[in-house]
Design brief:
PyrdxlP-dep_Trfase; binds pyridoxal-5'-phosphate; Aminotransferase class I/classII large domain-containing protein; two-stranded parallel ribbon; seven-stranded mixed sheet; 406 residues; transferase; alpha/beta; Aminotransferase_I/II_large
């Protein structure tokens, strides 16, 4: 008998299971509102024009080779990524108070951050990472894999389909001092609900007072609003308050469409350069045992764009194309539903929420009916990936939503 005979069957990942069910459906009217990747108006993956250009430039570069990158990653990529997150003029960069590692996209950044905290965050009652309720589907598994304890902070009120701000704030006031709090920088996944700037200020002020450690997950910079600075506002505000430590897991999957190239960074900000240097040295050690060195191609594409003013400007316009189409589809679905029977005034959350996802409020039974009777696929929590909508299917989707809610 095999020594591995006792290995139990693991459940299928729900997201990837949903995609498989969609692919297997032969109905021509089928609609995929589950996919966590941008789709164009023809429901096709979109390679951004600026990414195509950078790709061409790289392919024509003489002597480009497949050597290993340094353990921390491609130098010019790391510095450009710091500027993108914290802003070119940030004192953090001038004072060299941030340690940055290139990671396997946002997931790798979260994982490296979690492993780092598990190893170096002091043991105490507070050694627990608080995530939003509901959380991004992979937050708890990643944190638990790194053997960190977790807890929840309230985030969403189903009745109003908006932020549960009072309870969020009071929870941050009552959890033990020095707790770790995982925050979504913008375009919260799965709810699409973000705090306003004034709410962020209050969250930051309570967290500073209670000595909590902010750990930002930034997977949608520039993708949410189309404006890279606006989407980094919360991180930059926290950074300006000089927390003793602040982490940012940055992903380029969505905002460059580099999903499969696994391109990201982990930034650890401190109050002094010397400490940032020591932290960087320890993160290199963790990186070495995990992945040895990061993958080169996505970082070269990103770096080519981030370091060229002309390409950077084109990128900003491509981001507006993506975010603009998403806003357009939110508006179209809302108005079709509200003009339909029984839909008046019920769908304003579709346009109030932001980013790739929308929490529709549809319940698991309605989601099942959508799938079985209408061939419309979304996750059981009623989350819709808005970029799955286009001018060819939005009327049909509105009809389907009206059909299961009416
Ligand atoms: N964090 C959030 C909130 C996300 O929505 C995603 C992707 O959907 C990720 C992190 C990780 O994505 P990736 O590892 O592809 O960068």
């Amino acid at each position: 008998q095999s020594p591995l005979a006792g290995v139990p069957q693991a459940p299928k990942d729900p997201m990837f299971g949903l995609s498989a069910a969609y692919r297997a459906d032969t109905d021509p009217k089928k609609v995929d509102l589950g996919v966590g990747a941008y789709r164009d108006n023809n429901a096709k993956p979109w390679v951004m024009p600026v990414v195509k250009k950078a790709d061409e430039i790289l392919r024509q570069t003489p002597d480009l080779n497949h050597e290993y990158l340094p353990i921390a990653g491609l130098n010019e990529y790391l510095s450009a990524s710091q500027q993108l997150v914290f802003g070119e003029d940030s004192p953090i960069l001038k004072d060299h108070r941030v340690a940055t590692m290139q990671t396997i996209s946002g997931t790798g950044a979260l994982h490296l951050g979690a492993r780092f905290l598990h190893k170096f965050f002091p043991e105490s009652e507070a050694k627990r990472v608080y995530v939003s309720s509901p959380p991004y589907v992979n937050h708890l598994p990643i944190l638990h894999d790194a053997r960190l304890e977790t807890g929840f902070y309230p985030y969403y009120t189903p009745t109003t389909k908006s932020l549960d701000f009072e309870n969020l704030l009071s929870t941050l006031e009552t959890i033990p001092r020095n707790s770790i709090v995982l925050l979504h920088a913008c375009a919260h996944n799965p709810t699409g609900v973000d705090p306003t700037q004034s709410q962020w200020r209050q969250i930051a002020s309570v967290m500073r007072e209670r000595h909590h450690l902010p750990f930002f997950d930034s997977a949608y910079q520039g993708f949410a609003s189309g404006d890279l600075d606006a989407d980094a506002w919360a991180i930059r505000h926290f950074a300006s308050l000089d927390f003793p430590a602040l982490l940012v897991a940055q992903s380029y999957a969505k905002n460059f469409g580099l999903y499969g190239e696994r391109t990201g960074c982990l930034h650890v900000v401190t109050q002094e350069a010397e400490l940032a240097g020591r932290i960087g040295s320890q993160m290199e050690k963790l990186q070495r045992v995990n992945i040895s060195t990061p993958p080169a191609y996505g970082a070269r594409i990103a770096s080519t764009i981030l370091n060229s003013p002309a390409l950077f400007a084109e990128w900003q316009s491509d981001l507006k194309t993506m975010s603009g189409r998403i806003v357009e589809m939110r508006k179209a679905l809302r108005s079709l539903l509200e003009n339909g029977k029984g839909g008046e005034g019920k769908w304003k959350h579709l346009t109030e929420q932001t980013g790739m996802f929308c929490y529709t409020g549809l319940d698991p039974e309605q989601v099942r009916q959508l799938r079985e009777q209408w061939h419309v696929y979304l996750t059981g929590d009623g989350r819709v990936s808005v970029s799955g909508l286009n001018w060819g299917n939005v009327r049909y989707v509105a009809e389907a939503f009206g059909g299961v809610t009416g």
